[in-house]
Every structure is written in C-alpha cells, then in structure tokens.
C-alpha cells in the first residue's frame, strides 16, 4: 500500500513538474513572440545610392514581419566622418541591438571593430575580404556576414567598348583611402588592358582634390570610369560637371549615378541590395548563427543608360545594347 502511495505521489509530482515546464516554455515563447527586436543601422554618408540601400533594408525587414511595435530601428549617419564612425559604432553596440547593419565599407568596418559578440550585417560591401571583414565568404568565421555586391567589371569593360569604341585611354577616378575601390581598380585594369585599352589611375585622398584632379584628367583621357566609391559618390556632381564641359563620358557602377549624369553603368539596384541585406539580418534574428549564413554575393547587373547624356555627347547607342538595357534618363525629343 505504501509503495502504491509513493508511486502515485511521484507520478503527481512528475505531472506538476512537466506542467510547470510546459507553462514556462509557453511563457517564454509568448515573450519571444512579443519581444521588440532592436536593429541598429550605421550609414557612412548621405547619398542616393546608400539611401536606397537603407530603404531596402527597412522594407525587407517589414516584409519579414519586423515592423510597427515589433521592431525598434536606430539609424545613425556618420556623414563621411571617420571619428563619427567610431563613436556611432560604439553607441549602437552599447544600445544592445540584436543585430547591427553597416551600409558602406567604412560603416561595416567600424561596427566590426566595436563588437565581436553582436552580429554585424554588411550592407552591400564590394570587397569584404579585402576590407578584412571576412576571410571566407561561404563560411564567415566571426560575427560578420551580409551582402557583397561584386561590381560586374568584365561586363562594364564590354559596355565601354560597345558605346565608345574610339575611346583608347580610360581614366579611373577613385579614393586612395577606400580599400574596396583599390580591388575594383585592379580588376578593371586587368580586363581593360586585356582588351587593348590604356588605363590611367587618378587617386584622390578626399573630395577636396576631385575638382583639381578632374581638370588634369579631362585633358588626358577619352572616358572616365568610377568604381563603387563613397568619396567619389558624395562629390559626383563635380565629376559630371567637369566631364560634360570637356565632352567626356563618365561610366559608373551605380544606377542612381547614371541618373545624376553618368553615361552608363552595368548596375545593380541599390534598393534590392538593401533588401538582400535585410534577408541576411532576418536569418540571424530568427536564430541562425552567423557562421551558418554565407555572405550573399551578387555579381551580375543590367546595363543602365542615360540617353540624354548620350545625345549631348553625340554617342549612338547600338540597338543590341539598347534592347537589353534599363533607361535611367530619356533623350530630349
């Protein structure tokens, strides 16, 4: 009899324990479901291309259900100031965000330097290995992953030769301080020189030297190419103004910069790159470890044309190029 009572007592205690565990699990799941997710975004500088990436990030988070009172997004913009990158990175880390997103290489580098614990999501970084953000794109070994938009250099060189077959010397304008630009320049030179083009590099330390450098360039080159470079992007109006006066076409890497006066690019939608960045962030927010989220490499693009600039420069667009291209700006009638 005593044994039966003991058995029933143990059964009763087991039921209570399981019930308690179940209740705790339910409470935990309920709390997680109602928890406000914190996302910190650091943007390097105000520019339409980076603004579009940021918009894509926020819209991508919304599409995944992170919207309204379910998410708290803190957006900081360093406006190209490296000292602000450091202080803002620390601020986002100290705010204990669940993930932090760096838009442009300096922003991602600042966040990666500020934390080894909080997941850092790269927002469209052209050369994350060269920037020392990751060592292995398929298997990120630290706390950094995200998207890498590999500029379609080979396609770009082919576009330059198609639109301006008489251009023999191409000048490359880029910032010497940006690691991602240097790797793009090397790649462009490789493909361009293989195709018989002469490439001349013009590196500037900051936006202050762009005006003077452009004055020198326009007398020595037949066309200009600018890589994905935040310094050049922030002063692109100066580049196209001087190039237009000299009747020299400017090829770029970003669709928004074609709208701003570049002749053409093999472009990747900055907005869609932002949404791809959000998808990487969502995987981490839903529990995946950074090492299990490969860097999303986007390495192709669509030719994007400014027909108004082509018209002003008396450049005829081949019909086969026109058919496969997006039109950023139409020609005057």
Description:
- The protein is an alpha/beta fold and 333 residues long.
- It has two domains: 36-150 and 270-298, Response regulator (Rossmann fold), CATH 3.40.50.2300; 153-268 and 301-329, Rossmann fold (3-Layer(aba) Sandwich).
- It is 46% helix and 20% strand.
- The chain has 13 helices and 13 strands.
- The N and C termini lie far apart (102 Å).
- The relative contact order is 0.14.
- Pfam families: ABC_sub_bind (PF04392).
- This is Tryptophan ABC transporter substrate-binding protein.
Question: What portion of the residues fall into strands of 2 or more residues?
Answer: 15-25%
Question: What structural class do the secondary elements suggest?
Answer: alpha/beta
Helix % is 40-55%
Major β-sheet profile: 7 strands, mixed
Query: What ranges have pLDDT less than 50 throughout 5 or more consecutive residues?
Result: 23-32
Number of beta-strand segments: 13
Q: How are the strands ordered across the major sheet?
A: 7-6-8-9-10-12-13
CATH homolog superfamily of the largest domain:
Response regulator
Q: What is the CATH fold-level name of the largest domain? A: Rossmann fold
Radius of gyration: 25 Å
How many structural domains can be distinguished in the coordinates? 2
List the secondary-structure elements in sequence, H or E: HEHEHEHEEHEHEHEHHEHEHEEHHE
Q: Please count the helical segments.
A: 13
Mean pLDDT score = 90
Indicate the overall shape: elongated
Q: What is the C-level CATH assignment of the largest domain?
A: Alpha Beta
Second rung of CATH, namely the architecture of the largest domain: 3-Layer(aba) Sandwich
- What is the first-to-last residue Cα distance? 102 Å
